[in-house]
Amino acid sequence: MLTAEAVIFPAKEQVTLDKIKLPEPGPEDVVVETEYSGISNGTEGWILMARYKDTRFPLVTGYQKVGVISHVGPEVKYFREGDRVFLRATKVAQDINGMWYGHTSRSVQDWRQLIPVPAQADPASASLLVMPAVGYHGAGELVNVRAGELAVVLGQGLIGQFAAQVCKQRGCTVITVEPLAERRRLSAELGADYALDPTTDDVGDVVRSVKADGADVIIDTSAVPDAINQSFLWMRHGCRYCFQAYYPDFTPIDMFWPHVREMVAYHPTNVTEEGMRLMMMWIAEGRCQVRPLISHLRPWTDAPELFLMMIRRPQECLGMVLDWTGLL
Questions:
Q1: Please, is 29 exposed, middle or buried when counting C-beta atoms within 10 Å of its C-beta (0-12, 13-18, 19+)?
Q2: Does the bond joining 111 to the residue before it have cis omega, within 30 degrees of 0?
């Protein structure tokens, strides 16, 4: 039976490293040796704090990784040993919960779950693929931002950064709103036309200076009720509002301005395969900038330290990637 090193959450706010058992690959399975696995600070942070719905410890988290195929089943199509691929999980052969078994040194997976990684794509950047795909699903697929529109993005964590990049690539004027200076700097460097501090800048004045009748699109990635309610004042009539964050608690929203301005609301979740494949091409082509947003690229053995920092000092980290190449 195959085994893999894994990052395990045995209980709330606890992170350990241990081996888990994997099944023998079937005829349609591949075995992938992990090079990098990307951390989703928001989702995995909520899981570690037991604030994500249906969290049951012990578990193996993670849902984005890149590796090299070391075995191909006889009925696998299109893939060969040595191919670099993106995948989200692994099959397991023991009783341990998965959300979603991504942070493992090896995966056994059906070949249909793989996305090829182009040769020109940085593999560490590609390991965070779900993050830009989430931003694309909200801004690009559901809201369908268009050239000439004014888009305001609340929060410049990873999802907010990528939502802003999608809006810019689609030809929008982009205003980002973020209290942390380093995240504002990155936002401006990666394409935002205005990167504003909500504690000192009058965002409404900037919105109206760009477009007198208000924003065409607002994307919330902050999950902060006060920020959401304040942003309703910046909307034009018929504004499209995207609730792109994860909202673990009751979120009080004043519905007066959404009613008066006939706001259209979108509530995206997860990603589409089409969006992931497109974002992989954008990463390869340089249209989606991931590497500048990776604040920590560390050996997988540092996972306990990184995850605890993520929930205790979140302002110190942005994109985080675990490096498994030392095991290859």
A1: buried
A2: no
pTM of the full structure: 0.98
R_g of the chain computed on alpha carbons: 20
| Chain-centre distance for alpha carbon 275 | 12
> Of 218, 98, 86, which Cα lies nearest the Cα of 149?
218
Nearest to 292 by CA among 191, 197, 194: 191
CA distance 41 to 38: 9
Contact 64, 127 (CB under 8 A): yes
Q: Indicate the residue type of 199.
A: T
CB atoms closer than 10 angstroms to residue 256: 10
From first to last of its 328 residues, what are the pLDDT tens digits of the chain? Answer: 899 999 999 999 999 999 999 999 999 999 999 999 999 999 999 999 999 999 999 999 999 999 999 999 999 999 999 999 999 999 999 999 999 999 999 999 999 999 999 999 999 999 999 999 999 999 999 999 999 999 999 999 999 999 999 999 999 999 999 999 999 999 999 999 999 999 999 999 999 999 999 999 999 999 999 999 999 999 999 999 999 999 999 999 999 999 999 999 999 999 999 999 999 999 999 999 999 999 999 999 999 999 999 999 999 999 999 999 999 9
Q: Please give the biggest Cα pair distance in the chain.
A: 65
The helix, strand and coil proportions of the chain, stated in percent and rounded to the nearest 5, come to 35, 30, 40
3-state class (DSSP) for residue 16: strand
CATH of domain 130-266: 3.40.50.720
| Spatial CB neighbours of 156, under 8 Å, sequence gap ≥ 6 | 164, 176, 177, 178, 180, 183, 184, 186, 187, 195, 221
| In the chain, domain spans | 2-128+290-327, 130-266
Tokens of 144: 């369908």
Q: Give me the residue label for tokens 């209290």.
A: 179
Q: Could you tell me the fold of the domain covering 2-128+290-327?
A: Quinone Oxidoreductase; Chain A, domain 1 (3.90.180)
Q: Which two tokens stand for residue 259?
A: 């009613």
